[in-house]
Specification:
This protein has helices at residues 2-18, 22-63, 68-112. It is an all-alpha fold. The radius of gyration is 26 Å and the shape is rod-shaped.
Length: 113
Amino acid sequence: MKKSILAFAIAPLALAACQQDPTEIQADAIEEAAGNRADAVESNADARAAQLRQQASELEATANGQTGFTKKQTEVRIEALRKEADLIAEQGDARADAIETQAEADAKSLKSR
């Protein structure tokens, strides 16, 4: 009997905790959408970086049969492709972080109104 009374007493509190106000819902939606955008930006950058790394690997295979200045030129291209891939991946991470940081700021601003 005491358990059922306790359950009836707690039920309204639990229900109130589950209900979010519209501002909270909107703030959560902002953060979720930004997270999705950030994931897409990062994924696109990673895909582009992977393409560049693949090009570098293919060039590396051809460089093995080369000699002299031709080989040195190919090695320079390989290094440039790898550096570009690293830069693109780093830029994608930075953009994704910026998107999420802005969304957090927007959500906090919305909640503080």
